[in-house]
Model the fold of this input.
Amino acid sequence: MSRVRLFVRDARSILTPTGGYLSGFSHTLQPYSGCEFACAYCYVRQMAPQRTAPEGLAWSTWLAPKRNAPELLAREAERGRLGPARIFCSSVTDPYTPLERRLGLTRGCLEVMARCPPAALVLQTRSPLVVRDAELLARIPSALVSMTVATGDEAVRRALEPNAPGTGLRIEALGRLREAGVRTQAAVAPLLPGDPRQLARRLAPVVDRVVVDDFFLGDGAGGRRSRAALERLRSLGFGDWAEPGYAEESIAIFREELTPERVVVSQAGFNDLEWLTHGQDLRRDQ
Ligand code: SF4
Done:
């Protein structure tokens, strides 16, 4: 049974023009407002969706599915606005929040995109449920599944992402997507305490590339996100791990294990879509 209160509604639009941190993308797509995963470091707690939360409910206790999301996207396709779009799905929710299994709104949007592929599509998630849609994703040439794997340490993961699926399940999902012909990325973001070499070795066989981001590198939120997230980490007893040099050292280890071409960093890395839109195969030397 879901832990959240549901507020199903119709949205007025589904493709939101974007920029800022996501400067490489033209639009975000959020099939849901709110999120069930309750990550301790979640920056959305300070953003618009939570400021206008239904009945003033706390973050991760409510979810507002946009039941007409697929219809709105189909309308954008008919108007010729979907084909040129470079879409990030999603920036302020997880498109595979547990209720997606029942509601299928993200899947409905993918069905539209399989018929009318956008110029780029990055699906950012923490859930192995994305494997359900592997066949659809394989039909969208510019699709990339970006799975957050912020640490290989399951105790850290449980403390900071209490409602999200386990790390092992996420890595297994990346492997299954890749077998199905879907391009994959691990988002080590935010970089959390753990053993970066061990994590890099687990990720190397299942991803095209890794993007590493921490709370300090290229913070597109002008420092607000860093401070809020670090305060939460500190309150949970994880305040001292972020020593100077930890991020740089971790990135160097990822580059050693995966080759420099397959490791990108922070904002520039998230927004580097050239290889995606031109179908470059980063695994050619493996
Ligand atoms: S999955 Fe993303 S939106 Fe959801 S709680 Fe975690 S960081 Fe926030």
Notes: The radius of gyration is 18 Å.
